[in-house]
Amino acid sequence: MIMILIGYARVSTINQNEDRQIQELIKYGVEEKCIYIDKQSGKDFHRPSYMKMLKRLKKGDVLVVKSIDRLGRNYREIQEEWRIITHKRNADIVVLDMPLLDTTRSKDLLGTFIADLVLQLLSFVAENERMNIRQRQAEGIAAAKKRGVKFGRPPIPKPDNFDEMYKLWKDKKITAQAAADKCGISIWAFYRFANDNDFLQNV
């Protein structure tokens, strides 16, 4: 059986350059015609070149990536893809920046255990960092609100003739759409102001 080295490179946007990854893959021994490239986010694995690469990958082949984050950003999904490639496809994976993630070096139980352990650790670190980022964002937003910073679109000021149009509408002399048009606002904005008026009158 002939072993084929298949490279995979990914950058997040079309403006980023993948040359460094490609050079590292070629240096390892991957032929340029066997390198698949995606230019999109690594949040999931629904990427055209990745899917083509996975379809081509067969038993005995070796998938080579420069770093684990080039494979993807979601480490839980990475673990699942790792299992598919190494168990269902019976292919190997080499991560150039992390020698411990090289399934060609050790096929025994210890080698498999080490690779799985590293993936679990990376998954934990990535998830922990995502939680920290969300917490820092929430703390930043709360601090900004205390300083009076407003988020979202600025509220639409109530039109000067709203009360007059509101009364005509309540008296069923004009429709809500006609009232909104005369106020120069959308029908939804008219209803929002109307609800505010109704609430204030019932307080």
Entry summary:
With 203 residues, the protein is an alpha/beta fold.
Description:
By secondary structure, the protein is an alpha/beta fold. It folds into 2 domains: 5-126, Resolvase, N-terminal catalytic domain (Rossmann fold), CATH 3.40.50.1390; 162-202. It contains 8 helices and 4 strands. Helix 6 (162-170) runs antiparallel to helix 7 (176-183) and helix 7 crosses helix 8. The termini are far apart. The model has no long low-confidence stretch (mean pLDDT 84).
Write the layout of secondary structure elements.
Blueprint: E1 5-11, H1 19-28, E2 35-39, H2 48-56, E3 62-65, H3 68-71, H4 75-88, E4 92-95, H5 109-146, H6 162-170, H7 176-183, H8 187-202
Parallel strand pairs: 1-2, 1-3, 3-4
Shape: elongated
CATH architecture of the largest domain: 3-Layer(aba) Sandwich
CATH homologous superfamily descriptor of the largest domain: Resolvase, N-terminal catalytic domain
* Helix content, binned percent: 40-55%
CATH class of the largest domain: Alpha Beta
The total count of helices amounts to 8
For the structure shown, list the relevant keywords.
4-stranded parallel beta sheet, 203 residues, elongated, single chain, Rossmann fold, 2 domains
